[in-house]
Amino acid sequence: MSTVCQAIKGEYETWTQRRLDGLVLDYLFLDASFFRMHPGSSAEPVLAAWGITTDGKPVFVGLAPGSGESTDAWADFLTDLRDRGLPSPLLVISDGAAGLIAAIEQTFPKALRQRCLVHRARNVLAKIPTGMQAEIRDGYWALFDTKDLTTEPGPRLVELIDARITAFADTYAPTYPAAMKILRTDAAGLTAYLRFPAEHHQRIRHSNFIERTFGETRRRAKVIGRFPGETSCISLVWAVLDRASAGWRGLTMTPAGLRLLQDLRRSLLDPPRQLRPPPATAPDQADQPDTVTATA
């Protein structure tokens, strides 16, 4: 067992130092899960990153312990990925933790940011009485149902769904002001995914892609109770996720979807430089009116 653990530790350390220059992502998902790693301490976060490449392939990108879910912790994690060559993705999907959002905007300022719709639904429903939760939940998910719309992905579709959110919040705000305040907060982050190919919407509007695997890891860790230390915890979590990633499903890339992604990549990450207007030329001296110098 000791030999196996040492081998896994070595594999993990090699994995965390690999270069990421050749990894071009359309979508980057970020999430954290909590484990008890140190004696006498409460559960601490393990930060994870995974994504979908421009070929539609899923890839496990990064994993590291975090001192918390603060801006500094997430920024250190994302900066390490960027310093090892990871280019900016087009869309970053995460929950609404303030520290995580700030770190995303700091590290990948050109990427769009999608707030996980599942997490936001939980936040809203937490402020709703039990007897009304089904109605609000169904109404919430209906806001993002676009199957009957003929509008193509893009700014116009975003506007339509934004209008639905506003109308829904206005309807229920008099009765559930706290819940509707949550819905309105960072509403723009709820609709960023609508600019991307429609066939990807169901997968990129939430960050729960990895939660089932995290749940399996927590189930195994529950038997242990508490890990002997940080290294053993991270090594086990990485081993489970690394093996599971081989079975993750990718995304279908259609010709129309690829064109849309290419257009987004150009507009977000490589926008054309704005030409400077030519400097104004001073009128020819001969065209200047004669000036008369007054003498005392």
Notes on the structure:
The structure is a single chain. The chain has 2 domains: 1-115 and 208-269, Ribonuclease H-like superfamily/Ribonuclease H (Nucleotidyltransferase, domain 5, 2-Layer Sandwich), CATH 3.30.420.10; 117-206, no CATH class. Helix 4 (117-125) runs antiparallel to helix 7 (177-184) and helix 6 packs antiparallel against helix 7 (177-184). 45% of the residues lie in helices and 12% in strands. The N and C termini lie far apart (105 Å). With 296 residues, it is α/β, with parallel strands linked by helices. Strands 3-2-1-4-5 form a 5-stranded mixed sheet, with helices on both faces. It is globular, with a radius of gyration of 25 Å. The longest helix has 18 residues, at 155-172. A hairpin with a 4-residue loop joins strand 2 (44-53) and strand 3 (58-65). The protein contains 11 helices and 5 strands. It has helices spanning 2-16, 71-83, 98-107, 117-125, 133-143, 155-172, 177-184, 201-204, 211-224, 230-244, 255-269; strands at residues 25-35, 44-53, 58-65, 91-94, 112-115.
